[in-house]
Amino acid sequence: MKKIVSAALAVAALVTLIGCQKKGPAEAGKVLNIHTWNEEFQDRFNTYYASKLPEDVKVNWIITPFQDGAYQNKLDEALLRQNDVPADEKVDIFLVEAEYALKYVDTDFTLDVIKDVGITRDQIKDQYKYTQDIMTDSKGNLKGLTWQACPGGFIYRRSIAKDVLGTDDPDEIGKALADWDKFDDVAAKAKAKGYFMLSGFTDDFRVFSDNMTQPWVVNNKITIDPQIHKWVAQTKTYTEKGYNNRAQLFSAESTQGMGAKGKVFGYFGPAWFIDFIMAPSCLDDQNKPREVGNGSFGDWAFCKGPQGFSWGGTWICAARGTDNIEIIKDLLETLTCNAEVMTEIAVKSGDFTNNVPAMETIAKSDYKNPFLGGQNHIRFFLESAKSIDKTCISPYDLGMTEKIQAAMTDYFNDKVTLEKAWDNFFTAATELFPNLTR
I want to staple 151 with a disulfide (CB 3.0 to 4.6 A). Which of 1, 18, 161, 381 is the partner? Predict the structure, then answer.
């Protein structure tokens, strides 16, 4: 694989080429090229925006799997060719996640949505502040917007909660899982009843990592926050005691625990995890409606859990060199600024959207999420959403997350000692990021 587009060196490649891009959009194009890694944004686009497109504009979806850096590598290759390809082959829109957003924010490959695209500050005044902080570069330019905010919590199986704790009420379960000591106690009770508290090793990783108080890298030296040490220690204990099922999050073994015959007490995640991962995975028959009676649909509920956190989020970026500025502006206005659209997305999919008044209104309403047994889970997210702090994010987050999880999996499976696992992590991390030291 060419080093220039590897996950590690693409940061340097992009930064080096700042200022080398042509300024300003060309005439309106007839092809809208969109780079993303799954169908989540495509679904939102098709449902809430596609009908507004001019009839002569074709949408070209370039969907590249996220695994092993494939998405970023393909996107980087396309951005590096932006000056050398015909207009209809240029990247118009690409999507990024929080764990690597800064890699693109501080480059000229992303347009300022205010100065270049034409969105106004008034239009985005109701968005959650952290969603803009993540996409603001060192000069104060806003480089992307999102339709969602991603506070997380614990999504638990109602029937298992009743068996283990005698109730499935979200307020009562929230009290029973209010801190990690209480969470551990319930894990022991769940094990005694034949259940797993979590599906595997990485289920709660982001609960800990999102509460880090220092970034992964300080002055080009890798730093390990105490929260990461807590995750390692807890996961080793859970594995040894049989509190988890030794699965990797998103694996078939993990999602099987969401089905009707699943034995997993619950999963940590934000609203998108409920809608995009759990809701389809819980069904016995994918061809039948998502409703009670189809698998475990409806046998779930939501509470805050032992520690507040946020996870993920998808930001829409306009690529410099695009010839579809007006369409991008209209898209951003529709999907990220329109309160009615934000409300409809939340009500129909259960997603927690990026509009404070809309979320506050739904939280006070009689909204009921069918997957969660009729629960209005939005109210549990409100406080967490307002307090999300992303000051510790860095361009290294995704790489560090992948390497620490891989290294510690061998430790959890008793293949290596803890000392060897740490050595393997630092070796992998410095190979990925040669500018860093242990």
Answer: 381
Do residues 389 and 309 touch, judged by C-beta distance below 8 A? no
Each residue's pLDDT tens digit, 57-106: 999 999 999 887 899 999 999 999 999 999 999 999 999 998 899 999 99
Sorting pLDDT into bands at 50, 70 and 90, what band is 390?
confident
The answer to whether 228 and 418 are in contact (CB under 8 A) is: no
Q: What is the pLDDT of residues 252-267, one digit of tens each?
A: 999 999 999 999 999 9
Which among 173, 151, 155 has a CA at the least distance from the CA of 164? 173
**Of the candidates 406, 401, 348, which has an alpha carbon nearest to the alpha carbon of residue 378?**
348
Distance between CA atoms of 202 and 200, rounded to whole angstroms?
6
pTM of the model: 0.85
Question: Is residue 351 within 8 Å of 271, Cβ to Cβ?
Answer: yes
Q: Would you call 125 helix, strand, or coil by DSSP? A: coil
How far apart are the C-alpha atoms of 5 and 11, rounded to whole Å? 9
Closest C-alpha to 385, from 356, 406, 407, 413: 356
The SS3 assignment for 56 reads coil
State the Cα angle at 267 between 264 and 269, rounded to 5°: 170
Other C-beta atoms closer than 10 Å to the C-beta of 220 total: 9
| CA R_g for the chain | 22
Rounded CA gap, 195 and 187, in Å? 8
153 vs 308: CA distance, rounded Å: 7
Q: How far apart, in whole angstroms, are the C-alpha atoms of residue 66 and residue 227?
A: 26
Q: In the numeric block, which tokens belong to residue 40? A: 């989540």
Give, in order, the Cα–Cα distances in Å from 214 to each of 17, 86, 103, 145, 380: 29, 44, 18, 25, 27
pLDDT digits (tens, 9 = 90+) for 14-52: 443 433 343 443 457 899 999 999 999 999 999 999 999
Say which residues have a Cβ less than 8 Å from residue 82's Cβ, sequence separation at least 6: 21, 90, 91, 109, 319, 320, 321
Widest CA span in the chain: 66
What's phi and psi for 246, nearest 5 deg? 60, 25
Residue 118, CA distances (Å) to 13, 205, 227 in order: 28, 38, 41
Beta-bridge mates of residue 196:
264
